[in-house]
Fold each of these.
Amino acid sequence: MASSINRRDWLRQTSMTALGLGISARSIATVEPSWDRIRETENGLINLGSNENPYGISPNAKQAIIDMIPWASRYSFNLDSLKDAQSTIAKYYGVTEENILLTAGSSIVLDLMPRILYKPNANIVTAEPTFFILPALSRKLGFTVNALPVGPDRGLDLPAMLSAINSDTQLVYVVNPNNPTSTYLKPAAMKNFCQEAAKKTAVLVDEAYLDFLDAPDNESMIPLAASNPNILVTRTFSKIHGMAGLRIGYIIGHPTRIQQLGQANFSESQVAISDLTLAAALASLKDEEYRAKVKQKNAAARAYTIKGLQKLNINVTPSFTNFIHFPLGNYQGDFADFMLKRNIILRNYPMAKEKWGRVSVGTMSEMQQFIKVMNETWKG
Ligand SMILES: Cc1ncc(COP(=O)(O)O)c(C=O)c1O
């Protein structure tokens, strides 16, 4: 394969100019992420509803996509720079290729797990509230979903989840940090829980937001997953890597589990991901500087927003993620609908005892706009 320099030159001379875009490939790639602007959606809204990364993808990932465009007619296994993508990602997490299944976003895995585990009378144990995809599909398939309410601190109630496991439990689904409550469990508690639960059934730990934590709290359960066939970990490039639209996630587990999942999915899983996405993912993994900056920007905008909400006497749940969970108290009506009329997309859901809102952490300017609207309108 031509070197990346050759590819870049080729591209500069052809695709961009041929497309009449009037901009060079390099000019797109070297554009710094705009760290502090309002990024409205196509219809002029500020989208704080899906926990996306507001800063865009890493500049290195952008460059990798541009460099890959000329090769997009090839399958990734025919490209030197991509044929080992799966093992490169595995290696990054200290496991082998046999331990990983790449999917077009981790939602695929959340859909796949209940499908392969279903049997009549089976149940799934999880928390309430938690990320909806796996519990919702499980109910549709006919599982009983035993969703244990979060505690008064809105954290997952691990002892209750552990005692809820019975001989019909096919899976325990733990999201850590949890979406939507933004709480997290310390590594020691998680390890203990996984090991105990795995004596009885399969455990899937969803670490979509773990990258937003600092060491030592950002310790993954991946090492347990690699050795214990009953423990699995799923992660995604959609959050800190900012690649939600590029669609890549993965599950890590014991080779027997990964084989079982791969057969149900598509055994050549790497072919299920586009060349452009694979190239971006590999470049993004290497760009630790970008991720550190995202984390720092996220923490600053999050602290600002939490302070702003607290000034309105809102009892915000401490957040360890890129979103903030807060109770709506006696708020009457549909809060998300109210905010939408003010051009801000966020979420609200009923919980067992109270209504709550969830706002994703956008750029500082976006959060300033959110707090401005809150200051003007919040009546508690
Ligand atoms: C906890 C959790 N897991 C998984 C996902 C899905 O991510 P992906 O884009 O990889 O499908 C999300 C998305 O918001 C999430 O919140």
Note: The longest strand covers residues 169-175.
Amino acid sequence: MILTGKRILIAGMSDRRSIGYSIAVEAQKAGAELLLTSFGRMMSITQMTAKKLNPVPEILEMDVTKPDDIAAAVKETSKRWDRIDGLVHSVAYAPPDALGGEFLNTKWESVATALQVSAFSFKELAVGFLPLMREHGGSLVTLDFDNSTQAWPKYDWMGVSKSALESVTRYLARDLGRYKIRVNAVCAGPLATLAASGIPGFKDFEEVWGQRAPLGWNLQDRTPVGRAVVALLSDYLDMTTGELVHVDGGYHAMGAELPPPE
Ligand SMILES: NC(=O)c1ccc[n+]([C@@H]2O[C@H](COP(=O)([O-])OP(=O)(O)OC[C@H]3O[C@@H](n4cnc5c(N)ncnc54)[C@H](O)[C@@H]3O)[C@@H](O)[C@H]2O)c1
């Protein structure tokens, strides 16, 4: 199994629809040992969801905007493990006025929150957990919705935050390569999760993905994304870093809608 002997920390698992849950399921199937993090009111949901995993992983408290929380989570992790091999950042948030078509009117405080939670926090976690990875290398993976070349309807400042996250991925890859730490993002197609339910017009993506993705796309099936993250956490992609790996049915590579199959 490709993650046997690997110790992986996953930040950002909420309920069973969460991409984080699919990553946890697939990582356990691949032989990984897991630690999870959650925060605030989400903690009880994460605890319920974690009961479905086998073995049930421990969950640490960590609000990614609080340096003290990150330091405490690092300390708690190092009490349990002398190293980590992988860290998954599956965390994003934008205040309601930063999404939904009010791009021109969003106030800076909301933009700042979106950028801090959804992009800057990846750097914060990478630096915080570096002492547990720097001796032997490892893999950091974040979750992206591709904003490398285009704007989306309604996605607004979350889209800008994802562009920032893509850039953070490349700069982390630049600065952590010396420790043999790889840093990559999985660009997932749209999936029906708790976070997605807060994005106005999200349902519309179903139709456009159906028309354009050559492999097709199912908004309810998070497993392909979970498996791609597992591949990036494994040693099979040991010379891949600073990369955006698309798991979107091929949507990003098409220039127009596909004709219906004959
Ligand atoms: N659902 C999609 O269509 C889709 C597509 C591509 C990428 N993504 C990305 O995947 C990641 C996971 O999202 P999801 O769709 O599984 O939804 P989700 O709601 O299950 O996950 C989002 C997580 O972010 C956590 N979070 C928010 N603010 C936090 C904070 N301050 N500190 C710590 N944790 C915090 C939440 O607790 C939650 O666990 C996000 O980065 C999201 O943008 C989602």
Note: The beta strands are 7-11, 33-38, 58-61, 86-89, 138-144, 181-188, 244-247.
